[in-house]
Amino acid sequence: MISRRHLLGTALILGAGAALLPRASSAAAGDEPVVLIQRFYDTLLECMKRGPELGFDGRFALVQPVLNDVFDVATMCRIAVGPDWTLMPGDKKGELLQTFDRYIITTYAGRFRSFNNQKFDVGEAKPAGDGRVLLHTKLLRSNGEPVELNYLFRFNDNTWRVIDIYLAGAISQMAQLRSEFAQSLRQGGADALMASLEEKILDLKKES
After folding, report:
1. pTM of the predicted model, to two decimals?
2. Is 119 left (phi over 0), alpha (psi -120 to 50) or beta?
3. Contact partners, residue 87, CB within 8 Å, separation at least 6
C-alpha cells in the first residue's frame, strides 16, 4: 500500500518562467487532460498489478513513454531549479534535464509496485487562469480513504501537458522540489544537484 509520505515524494510534481497563453476554459481544453491522466493512471495500475512480474526495469520501461507524453518535464525541471536555471551553461542544462527525467520516472516505477485494490478517480478539468487548467483526481486507498491529487496543465506544442502536481489540493510538488534542490545548488550548482538526484535514484531502486 502506498503511504502518504511516498505520495508526497512521488507527486512530482513543476508555471514560473513559462510563456503565458490566453485564458483557457474547460471547453477549450476539452477532454484531453482527462484522457492523458487516465492513460497515466492506467499505466500506474498496470505497474502495481504486475509489479513483481515486471520488476523495477520493467516498470520503468512501462512508465517512461507515458510519463514523457503527459508531463512537460522540461518545464517542470526549470521550475524546480528556479533562478539558477538561467545561470547554467547549455550542456549542464541538458545533463540535468536527463537526470531529472530519470528521477521522476524512477520515483513512479519504484513506488507504484504493488496492488491492494487501489483505485483512481478522475474528475474534470477546470480553468486555473493564465491559459492553464486544473484537473482534480483522487487515489482511493484499499480502505476507501481518498488522497487528493490535482494536476496543473498548460497548453504547449499543440498539446496539454502537466507542469505541476498538488497533493491535498494545496501542496505544490514543484515548490517542494525547489526547496529540496536549493541546498545542493548553493553548494555545487548543477553537478551537486545531479549527484544528489543520482543518490535518490539509487535509493529508490534499492527500495523496489
Report:
1. 0.86
2. beta
3. none
Length reported for the chain: 208
Give pLDDT tens digits for 30-68.
699 999 999 999 999 999 999 999 999 999 999 999 999
Maximum alpha-carbon separation in the chain: 49
Q: How far apart are CA 199 and CA 35, in angstroms?
A: 34
Q: Which regions of the chain are under pLDDT 70? A: 1-30
Give the list of residues 6+ apart from residue 29 with CB closer than 8 angstroms, or none: 125, 133, 153, 155, 160
Terminus-to-terminus CA distance in the chain, angstroms? 13
Query: Hunting for cell 490566453 — which residue is that?
Result: 22
Q: Which residue has the cell 509496485?
A: 113
